[in-house]
Each structure stands twice: as C-alpha cells, then as structure tokens.
Write the structure tokens for this entry.
Amino acid sequence: MKTFRVVILAAVLGLLALASAQSQLEIFSWWAGDEGPALQALLDRYNELHPDVNVINATVTGGSGVNARAVLKTRMLGGDPPDSFQVHAGQELIGTWVVADRMENLEDLYKEQGWLEKYPAGLLKLLSNDDGIWSVPVNIHRSNVMWYKPAKIEELGVVVPNSWDEFLAICPDLKAAGVTPLVVGENWTQQHLWESVALGVLGADDWANLWNGSLAFNSDKAQNVWDVFGQVMACTNDDASGLSWQQATDRVISGEAAFNIMGDWAAGYMTTTLELEPGSGFAWAASPGTDGIFLMLSDSFGLPKGVANREAAIDWLKLLGSAEGQDIFNPLKGSIAPHLDSDLSKYNAYLQSAAADWNSNVVAGSLIHGAAAKEAFQSQFGTILEIYLSSGSAQAAANAANAIAQQVGLGQ
Amino acid sequence: MIKKDRLTAILMLMPSVILLAIFVYGFIGQTVYTSLTNWGMDPSQALAINPKIKFVGFAMYKELFTGFIDIRFRQDLVNTFFFTIFFIAGCLVLGLGLAFLLDQNLKAEGLYRTIFLLPMSLSFIVTGTIWRWLLQPKGGINMLPSLIGLEPMQSRWLTTREQIWQFNWQDIPQFTGWLIVLVLLWISFSAFRNKNKSRALVAFISLLAIAAWSAFIAPKILILPYPETHGFNIAFVGIIMAAIWQMSGYTMALYLAGLRGIPQALREAASVDGANEWQIYRHVVLPLLKPISLSAMIILGHISLKIFDLIFAMTGADNSTTDVPALLMYLTTFRANQFSKGAAIAVILLIMVAFVIIPYLWTSLRSEVER
C-alpha cells in the first residue's frame, strides 16, 4: 500500500514538473456559449502547430464583452495581463489601452507576415494610429443589416424600405395589420438601432465627421438624427427592455414583427440555431438609407506589454492573422474573414453576400461595438439614449452627447 | 497577572486589528482619496501604468448632484429612496403578519416556518432570475388569470417606462427644509408632552425659522439651471415584489423570536384586566416588539441601499429605469473607466449606509455598556 502511494505521489509530481516545463499561453476572450466552438477550433489548430504549448482558454461570458472588459481592466491594473486578449478593433483598443501605453506595436509583425497588402486599407486605418498598428483582426461583422421574413413581407404587401422616410410611411399600415413594424430588445439593441438610424440619416461622410470631431453632436444635422430616431422608436414594441436580441429575432421569424435591425451574428443564429435557409427562411437588406455602406466591427487580438509568454502569444497572432486561421474560425462564428485570401467556398450564402459587400462598399466603423469612439464615450452612450427616451427631447439628447464628447475629448 | 492577561488580549487582537485597519479602513480611505481626484476623467491617463492624477477636491460630487450628464445618478438616488421605503414597509408588514399567524399555535408550525424562511436561503441572483421569468410580459404571473379562464393580464412589469409622483430636482432644498420642520415639530411636541417646556420652546422657534426659510428663501436656490423631473419608476414594483418575497421570511423569523420572548404572564395579566385579543396585541405585544422592528429596519435598510445583484439578475445593468447607485458605480468605474466618479458614488453610498448603521451601533453599544 505504501509503495503504491509513493508511486502515485511520484507520478503527480512528475506531471506537475512536465506541466511547468511546458510553456503556456493564456487567451482572454468573451467567446463562450454559441461562439465557443469557433474559438475552440482555432485553439485546436494552434495546439497542432505548437504541441508543446499549454493553451489556457480564459473566457468571461457576456455579449459584446461587457463583463470581460471589466475583468480585463482589474487584471491589467493589477499587473497580471493575459498573454493576448480579445478587443474590438478600433477606438476601444486605441482609446483605452494604446493611449495608456499598455500595448506592443505590431507593425513589424505585419511587415514580416506581409499583412500590409493582405488586409483592406480601411481596416488597417482603423487598427492604427500615428505610432503603429495595434492588433490583429480575426473577423468582420456588419452592424447595419435589416432582417425580415420574405413570406411575411409578401403577405403584408409592403416593399422593403430603402430609407427611413419609406419606413415611416409604411409604419402605420404595418401597425394597422397588427404587427410590430420594427422589433427591438434590451438597451444595447436600441443603441444598435440608433447607429443604423444615424448612419442612414447622416451618410458615411458625416458619420465619420461625428467621430473625428468635425461635426458637433449639437449641430442641427446631428440633432435631426434624434428626431428621426424618436419617430422610428414610435414604431417599435413597448416591451423592449425585457427581450434579448435573440428573442427580438424570434419575433420576426414568428411573424409578430415585420423587421429587425441587428448585426449579422443574427444570421448565424437563424441558420444554426433556428435552422432556417438564408434567402427563403429569412432575408436581409442594408438598414434603410445605408445601401453601399458597410458599418463594420471586428474582433481583434493584441499583445499587452510585459506578458509572460511573448513568443507563444506572437505565434497565436500569426495563426489568427493568416487566411488559414480565419477560414477555420469564421464559418463557425458566422462572420467573414478580413484577410483578402480567404476561401469563400467555405462560407454560407449570407456570408458570401456580406463578403461581396465588404469588398465593394464604403466602410464605416460601428459606435457601440467599439470601432468608432473611445470607450469612455461609447459606455456613456446608454445614458444619452436614456436622457432621450425619458425626456423625449432631441435637443436634450444632443446637448448631453456634446457634453460627453467634450468631456472625453472625442476625436482628439 | 492582570497585566499579563491584558498583554495576551492585545496580542490576540492585534492581527485582526491590523488586517481591518488595512483592508477595511485603509481602502475606505483610498476610495475617499480617489473620489477627490480626477483619475479616469482623461481617458489617456485612466489605465496608464503610472497615471497622472490631479487632486480636484469635491468636483466629482458637485458634478454628480448638479452636472448636466449625471441626471442618471440623481434618478438612481430617487429610485433607491422609493425602493428602500417600500421594501422595508413590505417586509415589516408581511413578516409581522406571518409571525402573528404562526404564533397561533398551528399544528405544523415548523413546516410553515421553514417554508416562509426558505426564500432567504437563495442568493439574490437566483431570486432575480426566477422573478425575471415570472414577470415576463407573456408568461408567469401575467398568465395566472388564464388558469381560471380569464383574459391574461397585460401588465408590463419590469419593462414599463411609466413614472409617477414626479417632482422637480430643484425643489430638493425646500423638501429638505420641510422635512426638518416635521422632525422639529415632533421633537417639540414630545418635549411638551413630557413637560420639558424650555426644550419645546427652543424646538418650536427653530421650527418657525426653518419653515420661513423653506417657504421664502429655498425656492430661490437653484441647484440646477433648468427644471429636471424625477419620480418613482413603476418598473420597480416587480423588483420590490421579488425583494420582499426573499426577505419577508427573515423578518418573520425575527418577529417570531420576539413574540416568543414576551412572557406569557404579561398577556395573561392583560386579559385578566379585561383586554380582548386585539387589545392585547395593540397595547402589550406591539410595544414590546419595537426593538425588533428597529433591528429589522436597520438590517433591511442597509440591504436595500447596497442592492446590486438582484437588479443585475432581473433587468441587467444597462436598464436605467431600474437603476440604482451601486449599479451605476460599477458601470462608471469598470466600463467608462471614470474611477474617480465611481469612487465618489461609492462614498455617497457609504455615507447613506452609515446614516442607517451608526445610530444603531451607537444605541446598541450604549445599552450593552449599561447592562
């Protein structure tokens, strides 16, 4: 018996020694649940390439990273950065972590891998500031998509609106027919709707001007967005704050609602979870007034300064940035690959159409998914929305937005 | 020998005193200091390794109470106020009622006691999740009437944006003034009843002075440059229901212990004097339960001021119609990276809880010494 115990002890000690001899790689993300398999596939591929590295998959659940970002901040402030973490490409990274001098410049990696020619220029611009390139994008999602069920729209006898004026014109008819013209869910999906409305009303140039500071939030043009948004919200369901985005999508599929505006992860939900055929079971159009504009968001991974396993983390970024890695990840995640060598035959009908738009459209950055504005502005946008919804005053909302923009130094 | 005892006592207490000093009072001090700086108001310094932080005094507090974009914080204070009142009242009434029922020598008293106490064993996260399902517009409670063939209810519960009892934030100085007047009125009245004439007179005179201030001067103080209405958000009704469901069993247990502590002889004496059942409760039992009510109010009060998890589970952190300062503190600190403003909210919360706790500790410590 005694010898048996000693053998066990020796074995355990041996394993421990082996584990500590192996190098580690900790990947921090919010991809749990539905998105877990896509990340796992990528991690599996990494382990095939680097069998000696022990990969730790650290995820914190919560859509759009709302909880993960809080955990990440306490870890970074506490001096325990993960080897590589997920972050929305754009200002969420640059306005929070790069300005705080916490990230390594990846420009040399881009040059070494030849990525400067393999990624669209608009995307590279979003990932960079004057001093360097700061993260490696792994996917592209589109924010300004309007979803509907073709059979229901035919039954209602309406045309899919091309502008918000057209939408507001058919809104009373849809209400009279007993359907919700546009279904929204909890607070962030209303912010999501706002950015589609704003893009539709302002157009791509003025949308960009809002974020670089040359169009003020309290200007007549920007204030008009809130007026239109108010009219659109009058066409939505009144139990919004109790619905998740999936439940809102369900209402379109069940025919209770005519339209829904949501990012294209909704396509993944409808094809994978609801098992609907893209094109017949559900259909899509650019949200009203945004045809030819691709309001994009992208998940990316960066390299914090002072990480424990720098070499392993750089190998991870190389895999992420390659066409091979992205074609493993994206068909499962329901997004398209930013890499220009991506093999489109691996993607479904919706994603192929999104990829075609990505290559031909004007690219704009999403506000609430971290691309367009600093986190300090983005996270207070819910308060601005609340000021509008509780006061009903476009002027109050415009003034609040302007005050916050000045406070955080937007566009500087 | 006594000296040696004392030395041992000090040595034994030292570790916990040191740990408390660092991890409780030290960090409270750090939070107070942070709230007086501008840490995080400049995004480029918020998360830097060695952030440049400037001391700005009470600027964050001033902004919270009068700043244009901090309207949400003020509504949160109002929310907490109404939530606390209804939550405490509901728990006390329901808890007392249940305790009285159980005090009637029921057959299976132990069983009922366990049933009523059970909700307390759940965490607020579990309670919140269950009640979120129950209060869905098309499920749970709204479907109850359909069980007996009636139309299902259409109540919006947690998703309504309706607001009642609206008032203007600019009127706050006035309200405060009148509140003090009411307190003084009570003080002078009770002093008068106790034949303490000079005290009654002083209280009455200061009452008149503050009443005059509230009526003539306070309305001219404008703490905001424009009117701003706040009120009671109807969406809180569902949250109050869930909170009462969870904590009323606990209040019942407190009351039941109190009831059991009342000597039978007192009740018998009252009934010999010809008091009926109701009169015994009204004039003998209820006055003896006063200290229990006070403890219950303190315990429930600090729970309701700090409430976070229940609302997080029921409506999420972003739903501002059901927001409270604790949630806003989380959002301000960890999403917007405005550490100093978050710390200021935390300090305000601490002061509010201290208002509830300190008088209680003071009186209970004093009575212990007397004993």
Q: What stands out?
A: Chain B touches chain A through 36 residues (CB under 8 Å). Residues 14 and 99 of chain B are 43 Å apart (CA to CA). The two ends of chain B are 27 Å apart (CA to CA). The longest strand of chain B covers residues 163-168.
